[in-house]
Specification:
CATH class of the largest domain: Alpha Beta
Structural class: alpha/beta
Strand order of the largest sheet: 4-1-3-2-5
Number of domains: 2
Order of helices and strands: EHEEHEEEHEHEHEHEHEEEEE
CATH architecture of the largest domain: 3-Layer(aba) Sandwich
Number of strands: 15
Distance between the termini: 28 Å
Number of helices: 7
Shape: globular
Oligomer: single chain
Strand content: 25-35%
Length: 253
Amino acid sequence: MSFTFASFYRFLVLDNLKDLQTKFLNWCNESQIKGTILIAKEGINANIVGEKKELDKVINNIKKELNYESLEIKFCEVEKMPFKRMKVKIKREIITFGIDEANPNIQVGTYIKPKDWNNLISNPEVKVVDTRNEYEYEIGTFKNAQNPHIDSFTQFNDYINNNLNPEKDEKVALFCTGGIRCEKVTALMLSKGFKEVYHLEGGILKYLEEIPPQETLWEGECFVFDERITVKHGLEKGSYQLSPENGQPVVTL
């Protein structure tokens, strides 16, 4: 028996978080969906797994409740259930950054579709920055992308302050796995006075899904937060597994 993994997020202003928590949890439990949904005043971030028919039913209920039909959802098939239970958590942020100015509901950078990304990052006037952690960068990144050398997303503000300047770095292109980190970062950079801030719409995963290998500027594989560990073009399972010693991704021999 196979399952479908659904991953999605959306920044939108939410109220009545307790009511949403109860409804989402009840819907998921009724449909035997497992995983995690984070909700905050700034939006929703979900990674949930179940049988496709039941998963679609839950997602449709969530869309109607949020009055938001255009959620962009990434689906993939998994051979076994990666979660033991269903959790719906109320959080301060749907991805922890800890900076009030990083609010995508107020402002956000310019979205660049995967088909236009190569042209943008090939421009020598554009500084290309990977917003992910050190180990993610080492597994794979875009050609000529800068490594922020961070171990946690919360450290990225220090990277901006120490390495980027709104007076000198007039054009900055940022990317992350699925797009959520870049929403926060571009909002923050605009608040700091950067004028032209771009980010890859749908993240690396959308790029690898849409751009053929013969046209790619991606080098390596992309770490993902599910049982595949890493993916390649076409979102095919990559060549990494988690080390039993330290839980870090290592190449399968």
